[in-house]
Amino acid sequence: MRIGQGFDVHQFEQGRPLIIGGVDIPHSMGLAGHSDADVLLHAISDALLGAVGEGDIGKHFPDTDPKYKDADSKKLLQHCYGLVKAKGFTLGNLDATIICQKPKMAPYISTMNATIACLLESEVVNINIKATTTEALGFVGREEGIAAQAVVLLKKDDN
């Protein structure tokens, strides 16, 4: 078994869509980033890469490479999971937290769980996404951005 942990943060920016967990969320601002800035999928990708000793998403998808401009983070996550499988592991479970003051994430959590389960070739029961606020403290509390953290447990593939 292997454990990986990931964290990401992006600031809000006008004129961009807000995509979290592969789900489009209606909001007045999106997140700034070289890719689509899906803070949750980036944290999960980092957790997967860390669990198999493959560095982080900056190593695999550098923001200096124009081919990743506005990249779909779902595809980046699938690439990372491909590296996990190539090393002989599969997902045991994923636990992740979105840290954001607004918008409220609760209406979108079940769709995120299903989307991520599909991307990671897993059952939804193995995916747990939750959200919290910072009680109006810090940059998240001031609604300047969103953070996410993720932990994955990988198991050796028996096949």
- Global mean pLDDT: 97
String of helices and strands: EEEEHHHEHEHE
Query: What is the beta-strand fraction?
Result: 25-35%
Largest sheet: 5 strands, mixed
Helical stretch tally = 5
- How many beta-strand runs? 7
Give unreliable regions as ranges.
none
**What is the CATH superfamily?**
2-C-methyl-D-erythritol 2,4-cyclodiphosphate synthase
The shape is globular
Look at the helices and sheets and give the structural class: alpha+beta
Number of domains: 1
Report the end-to-end length measured between terminal Cα atoms.
15 Å
Task: Provide the spatial order of strands within the biggest beta sheet.
Answer: 4-1-7-5-6
CATH architecture: 2-Layer Sandwich
CATH topology: 60s Ribosomal Protein L30, Chain: A
CATH class: Alpha Beta
Radius of gyration based on Cα positions: 15 Å
Work out the helicity level.
Answer: 25-40%
Note down, in words, how this protein is organized.
InterPro entries: MECDP_synthase, MECDP_synthase_CS, MECDP_synthase_sf. Its EC number is 4.6.1.12. This is 2-C-methyl-D-erythritol 2,4-cyclodiphosphate synthase. It is an enzyme of class 4 (lyase). Its cofactor is a divalent metal cation. The chain is globular. The two termini are 15 Å apart. It has a 5-stranded mixed sheet with strand order 4-1-7-5-6. A two-stranded antiparallel sheet has the order 2-3. It has a single domain (2-156), classed as 60s Ribosomal Protein L30, Chain: A, CATH 3.30.1330.50. It has helices spanning 39-51, 57-60, 73-86, 109-119, 138-141, and strands spanning 2-13, 18-20, 23-25, 30-31, 89-99, 127-132, 145-156. The chain has 159 residues and is an alpha+beta fold. It is built from 5 helices and 7 strands. Helix 1 packs parallel to helix 3. The mean pLDDT is 97. Strand 5 (89-99), helix 4 and strand 6 form a beta-alpha-beta unit.
